[in-house]
Design brief:
Elements lengths: L2 H4 L6 E10 L2 E8 L5 E8 H4 L3 H13 L8 E6 L3 E7 L4 E2 H7 L5 H20 L12 E3 L5 E3 L15 E2 L11 H4 L4 E2 H18 L9 H10 L10 H10 L10 H4 L3 H4 L19 H11 L3 H9 L5 H14 L37 E2 L9 E2 L10 H6 L4 H7 L36 E2 L2 E4 L3 E4 L22 E2 L16 H8 L1 H10 L7 H4 L16 E3 L5 H14 L3 E5 L2 E7 L5 E12 L4 E10 L2 H14 L3
Antiparallel strand pairs: 1-2, 2-3, 3-5, 4-5, 6-7, 7-8, 9-10, 11-12, 13-16, 14-15, 17-21, 18-19, 19-20, 20-21
The structure holds ligand H91.
């Protein structure tokens, strides 16, 4: 990344790791310097956006207009000559998609809790004259309180004459697209959203899609017919609701108004779904106003006036983040973290904030010297021994990290003989079809006397202007056509016992690994602190094992990745993986990280999709993990 492009955003935020990419956007985790709050920043490159630039403007306008408890909050928009940054509410629970697949499927009760929130968000979106047009579990995130937040308004529409007016652009993901939309007919946005919600509800209750095929045209044919299977675990009331939503004729489809008090959604609840926004941008919070007023040494009234403009600038962001802090029971307090040279974030130079000596509520965020932008956090603890400039940017070029990061030891070095392990019920049941898996290349890693591991070839950055992430690009060493393993995890095509076994993959891997007995050489356990994998909390994106040797696990995963021709770059205990299409385009990016979990003390594998189709990712990662003979 060119430093100049990020100058403006770095005045207010400390950027951290990339958490997602897709289209022309990259999403990074970051911390707002004044409040210490975690945020997500969607970064778009204007040049790469080209003709899609107006879409981004529509998305930003929509998000400025929409403020709701189940919609991801926009805090700040920064536009520079080259980039557009959207600062958004951070949702630590990640995508609903990952949550569903980790659990196989949700119980009717849990699905109802989530679906009520989805109906609430969509009823509100429609009430504001918008249609979302890209509803899917990947676009619903889980927040700290386990509530859903709708994201990605890039495809939304606000018909000029109101929501009853017809739209004509066919957009969204094929599997969730309404029949009238794929036929290219004029359609009503809200009706198309209801269909997608039907597909979504089916995915929640079943863990797979109602209309699925490797071939997009076949998916379309299935959608047009509107026939889907009803797994035996679906209750009659769930089946009825799905039927009402998945009506091919949009005029026969249930409306959002009827959903608000639908019997299925009311089971166990006494009130209809509350869709009105609980946030009011009109009435400002006095405590937050006062804190801003003290911090900026301006009257309450002038601060109130500035906030009321809702310019989605640093003032809006600071107010909204303070308010969110307060709502979470944290102290409404701004930090003097960015005193020097940080534009509008700067209170009068040389003057001390009246409460600068006060105890900070958030111990993980301690303020360093005013002249640097560096903020010391818990997350930085594991960065000792690292070039401070790079650690500050949180982006280490691969070459450097290969030299500085102690890598998992090679098979040669680690003498431990892994106990062969058959992933129960999985080995032999997975097939990869040629269509399904793209031709993938492999990056060789060798042992280097000095650095333990480093890449064989000099790592070159891709020159692709759209790839603004410094971290993942690597020169490919050799190419091999991939035809060997067959993967067909499309659950619609297998008999029910197989389906069950396949659907349980993430869970069964854990149980399988439980059986593994490994030895750990004490000398290898901890040579120095940075040889350790990260310690993470149990999360549904983490598969637990009962292994004690993380190095062995990393090596095992690397072997499987090479076998499956998935390109990867090793960074410590993280494997950054990618697949490509026949044409060399990166189709999928994901990370597998070997980590340590406590209580019980086990080794885990964290998985995270960064880019690519969620369901294809699911099948591939299931295949990789089940092939790990650790
Ligand atoms: N997908 C369509 O994976 C593939 C953590 C995480 C935490 C987030 C907050 C906002 C957004 C993403 C977050 C996030 C893209 C966000 C909001 C809007 C938007 C986009 C992202 C991924 C990108 C990373 C996302 C999930 C979706 C995580 N993400 N884990 N907080 O348009 Cl409005 Cl693209």
């Amino acid at each position: 990344m060119a430093a100049g492009d990020y100058e403006e955003i770095l005045k207010y935020y400390e950027l951290r790791e990339t958490i997602g990419t897709g289209g022309f956007a990259k999403v990074k985790c970051a911390r707002h310097l004044l409040t210490g709050e975690k945020v997500a920043i969607k970064i778009m490159d204007k040049l790469a956006l080209g003709d899609d630039l107006p879409r981004v403007k529509i998305e930003i306008d929509a998000m400025k207009n929409l403020s709701h408890q189940h919609i991801c909050q926009l805090y700040h928009v920064i536009e520079t000559s080259k980039k557009i940054f959207m600062v958004l509410e951070y949702c630590p629970g990640g995508e609903l998609f990952d949550y569903i697949i980790a659990k196989d499927r949700l119980s009717e009760e849990e699905a109802r809790v989530f679906f009520r929130q989805i109906v609430s968000a969509i009823a509100y979106v429609h009430s504001q004259g918008y249609a979302h047009r890209d509803l899917k579990p990947e676009n619903l995130l889980i927040d700290e309180e386990h509530n859903l937040k709708l994201i990605d308004f890039g495809l939304c529409a606000k018909p000029k004459g109101g929501l009853d007016y017809h739209l004509s652009t066919c957009c969204g993901s094929p599997a969730y697209a309404a029949p009238e939309l794929i036929q290219g007919k004029a359609y009503i946005g809200s009706e198309a959203d209801i269909w997608s919600m039907g597909v979504l509800l089916y995915a929640l209750l079943c863990g797979f899609l109602p209309f699925d095929d490797d071939n997009v045209m076949a998916v379309y044919r299935k959608i047009m017919r509107g026939k889907y299977s009803i797994p035996k675990w679906l209750s009659p009331s769930s089946t009825l609701l799905l039927n009402q939503m998945l009506q091919v004729d949009p005029k026969k489809r249930i409306t959002v108004k009827h959903l608000l008090s639908h019997p299925w959604l009311m089971q166990g609840y006494s009130d209809a779904i509350q869709w009105q926004s609980k946030y009011s941008l009109g009435r400002l919070d006095e405590d937050c106003l006062m804190e801003l007023s003290v911090f900026h040494k301006q009257s309450r009234e002038s601060i109130l006036e500035l906030i009321s403009e809702w310019k989605y600038d640093q003032m809006s962001a600071t107010y909204l983040l303070l308010q969110s802090k307060k709502a979470r029971g944290k102290c409404v307090r701004l930090r003097a973290a960015c005193l020097a040279g940080h534009g509008s974030a700067t209170p009068s130079a040389g003057l001390k904030h009246p409460r600068d000596d006060a105890q900070l509520d958030d111990t993980e965020f301690t303020v360093s010297t005013p002249v640097t932008r560096k903020v010391v956090t818990k997350m930085d603890e594991d960065k000792e021994n690292v070039d401070p400039d790079l650690a500050l940017r949180n982006e280490m070029p691969f070459e450097l990290s290969a030299l500085k990061t102690p890598f998992a030891k090679s098979q040669v070095e680690s003498q431990v003989e892994p106990t062969p392990f058959q992933a129960p019920a999985l080995k032999g049941t997975l097939n990869v079809t040629d269509e399904n898996l793209e031709h993938i290349r492999c990056l060789e890693i060798i042992v280097n006397a000095e650095s333990q591991f480093t890449a064989v070839t000099p790592i070159k950055k891709h020159t692709n202007p759209t790839n603004t992430d410094d971290s993942t690009a690597a020169e490919v060493v050799h190419e091999r056509r991939f035809h060997s393993v067959d993967l067909d995890l499309n659950l619609a095509h297998v008999d029910s016992s197989q389906k069950k076994r396949k659907a349980k993959i993430f869970g069964s891997l854990e149980r399988g690994l439980d059986k593994v007995i490994t030895m750990l050489t004490p000398s290898k356990k901890k040579r120095y602190a940075r040889e350790q994998p990260r310690k993470l909390k149990a999360h549904y994106n983490v598969t637990t094992t009962q292994l004690l040797n993380p190095d062995q696990l990393v090596n095992e995963i690397m072997t499987v990745l090479s076998k499956k021709h998935v390109e990867y770059i090793q960074r410590g205990y993280t494997l950054k993986c990618q697949t490509r299409s026949d044409f060399g385009k990166v189709t999928m990016e994901f990370e597998l990280e070997v980590c340590l979990l406590s209580k019980p003390d086990v080794v885990g594998i964290r998985r995270q999709r960064l880019k690519g189709d969620a369901w294809v990712y699911k099948r591939l990662v299931e295949d990789i993990l089940s092939s790990c003979q650790v």
